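Exercise 7. Given the encoded structure of a 299-residue chain, write a plausible sequence.
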């Protein structure tokens, strides 16, 4: 069997794939940012995070036909966020004083349960959400046609969401506590902060971002139970590349892997699935704490 040849793309192809990579990177950022906040503050290796992304997509599919497109996106994100809060307070909180492997095994097991519940409720066949007819199919930018929802609206909305999260983390008391807790949770607790409540809120916020990303991705990608496993592994790769606990690390890592993966799909498709792991391997060799990671965060 002859090996696939490397394709030399033209400018138009490169531009199209670059835009696709930015769009993919924006979804990666939303999911990775939520996981990064949880991992950075709480030290919880949450393998159920990909399942929350999957649930957001399926809830969007379920609600779209009853309450409408935009309310369905909002409702899906909120429900997943509330589910995340309940998940943390009932299942994860009792394991905080145990070794991290307990939480890893718990969240891995619950991710499998979520996947089976989804199969029971919605089946194994892939489903898809259509965008409303009033949303333009494409838009002309500089003489090039781009899908409006995927390449324009989704990117702009993600930028707005990231700005809101940045303001929350940097300009509010809750954000100050979260950032301080990321560095030294015990000291924050000594100062009288209710850390169990803070952990629940943080886990809920991270889950909400994952559910929101899933709801926004529903009109773009086929929705099927394997989404959970596909996205959680790559999300951890992004967190490691960008740096655990880093806001800008999640953004840079998500964009870097999203763009390079998209370009690799054009240049050499057989290497697409390896792209993120290759980048992670290089980063771990050169800068083990990640691009924006803080050295000794978990020491």
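Solution.
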């Amino acid at each position: 069997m002859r090996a696939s040849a490397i394709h030399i793309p033209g400018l138009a192809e490169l531009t199209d794939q670059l835009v696709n990579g930015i769009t993919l990177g924006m979804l990666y950022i939303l999911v990775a940012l939520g996981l990064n906040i949880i991992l950075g503050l709480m030290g919880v290796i949450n393998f159920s995070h990909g399942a929350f992304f999957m649930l957001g997509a399926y809830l969007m599919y379920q609600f779209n036909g009853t309450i409408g497109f935009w309310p369905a996106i909002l409702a899906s994100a909120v429900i997943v966020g509330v589910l995340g809060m309940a998940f943390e307070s009932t299942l994860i909180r009792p394991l905080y004083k145990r070794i991290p492997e307990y939480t890893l095994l718990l969240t891995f097991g619950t991710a499998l349960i979520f996947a089976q519940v989804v199969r029971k409720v919605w089946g194994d066949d892939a489903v898809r959400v259509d965008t409303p007819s009033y949303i333009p199919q494409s838009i002309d930018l500089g003489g090039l046609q781009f899908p409006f929802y995927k390449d324009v609206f989704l990117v702009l909305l993600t930028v707005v969401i990231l700005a809101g999260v940045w303001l929350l983390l940097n300009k509010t008391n809750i954000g100050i506590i979260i950032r301080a807790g990321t560095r030294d949770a015990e000291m924050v607790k000594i100062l009288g902060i209710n850390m169990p409540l803070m952990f629940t809120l943080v886990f809920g916020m991270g889950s909400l971002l994952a559910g929101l990303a899933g709801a926004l991705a529903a009109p773009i990608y086929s929705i099927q139970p394997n989404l959970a496993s596909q996205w959680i592994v790559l999300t951890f790769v992004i967190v490691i590349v960008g740096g655990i606990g880093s806001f800008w690390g999640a953004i840079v890592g998500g964009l870097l892997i999203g763009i390079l993966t998209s370009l690799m799909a054009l240049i050499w498709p057989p290497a697409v699935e390896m792209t993120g792991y290759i980048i992670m391997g290089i980063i771990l060799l050169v800068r083990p704490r990640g691009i924006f990671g803080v050295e000794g965060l978990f020491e």
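Remark. Residues 130 and 219 are 5 Å apart (CA to CA). Students should compare their own answers with the one above.
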